[in-house]
Amino acid sequence: MDKLKVMTIFGTRPEAIKMAPLVKKLQETEEIQSVLCVTAQHREMLDMVLDLFELKPDYDLNIMQHGQTISDITVKVLKGVEEILQEVKPDIVLVHGDTTTTFVGSLAAFYQQVAVGHVEAGLRSGNIYSPYPEEMNRRLTGHLANLHFAPTEGNYKNLVKEGIGEEKIFVTGNTVIDALLQVVKEDYLFDNPLLNQIDYVNKKVLVMTCHRRENWGEPMENIFKAVVEIAEKHKDVEVIFPVHLNPNIRNLAKQIMGEAGNIHLIEPLDYEPFANLLSKAHLILTDSGGIQEEAPALGKPILVLRTETERPEAVEAGTVKVVGVEKQKIVEEVDKLLKSPSHYLEMATAINPYGDGRACERIVGALKYHFKLSKEKPEVFKR
């Protein structure tokens, strides 16, 4: 083998954030020829991350269309990736996590009998419809993959339980910590003037994200009403909510929260400013998966606006608490953190179970070891 040809496929902002430092590591590795394919399942938000990490795709399917369904994405990715695989003929395809691009990219590789490496493998919520469709994407990808890069020991155990051979699993830590540590800066200045004007020292800044498909409708109304009540009760609180581009979410947010003086509905942020905003926050409310991994590295308590999480390690470590989507429960849990310094400190100082900034190094080491370019097996990540 001259060089190991590794083709990386991703299509959304969260995937790009977590895969960008890995692509950079692949590009730096002498024994590897790196090929980058993006589907642009998300377009604008994906491009923000590509620009930040100075990545130029070798192939861009550009499939994004407003109002596209999961079936639309599936068909376009399957056909588009098939053609690229036939041209590139990689030794292995790397996919990440749980998106439709991830599952369908893996399926396309399987159809071409190309090996698949699953980055962020082994996460499970236990409910195939929550998060939807991500949980099933994750499971199906797990059974198409030949190599599994599990962030934690718990993820490793999930895969073994499902019959995946232990020799195919490498515990690496999560690449999102690699990305995060590269972009957070103590003296960071935001492009948005409002974010520079916030008093992060004397105010308790709550950063919120809310966009999950399973929260659309009544759950999201409950969440937004809870935040309004919190903002009214605690005058020392400033809520910053970068609102998802989905017009239904934007309209509902404006309708319920638009009049509150200490709730700031802002445009979505690029990854770098968002990571730096998290680092300045007092508390984070989110239905996102990735933030449950990032915030513990910054010492920030997280309340998860969902009924279950596929990231139980953070719950066990005490950095994350799942509070559901009922208004009163959300208000009560936020009140506890705002009023009890000891309760806050307990969550804020819990050990981050997700990584040490060396996940990409371990994944590249695992690829070299598997393809016999190195005799050295990468060390196991342990928190």
Automatic annotation (TrEMBL):
What is the name of the gene encoding this protein?
A: mnaA
| Documented EC number(s) | 5.1.3.14
Could you tell me which residue ranges the UDP-N-acetylglucosamine 2-epimerase domain spans? 24-368
Q: Which domain of life is it from?
A: Bacteria
- The top EC class, named as a word, is isomerase
The protein's matches in InterPro entries, at most eight in alphabetical order, are given as: UDP_GlcNAc_Epimerase_2_dom, WecB-like
SUPFAM superfamilies assigned to the protein according to its UniProt record, in alphabetical order: UDP-Glycosyltransferase/glycogen phosphorylase
| Pfam family for this entry, one | Epimerase_2
The record's section on PANTHER family has: UDP-N-ACETYLGLUCOSAMINE 2-EPIMERASE
The record's family statement is: Belongs to the UDP-N-acetylglucosamine 2-epimerase family.
Record key words, sorted: Isomerase
UniProt keyword Isomerase, yes or no: yes
Quote the NCBIfam families the UniProt record gives. wecB
Q: Does the keyword Isomerase apply?
A: yes
- Mind telling me what this protein is named? UDP-N-acetylglucosamine 2-epimerase (non-hydrolyzing)
Q: Which CDD domains match?
A: GTB_UDP-GlcNAc_2-Epimerase
Kindly list the GO molecular function terms attached to this UniProt entry. UDP-N-acetylglucosamine 2-epimerase activity
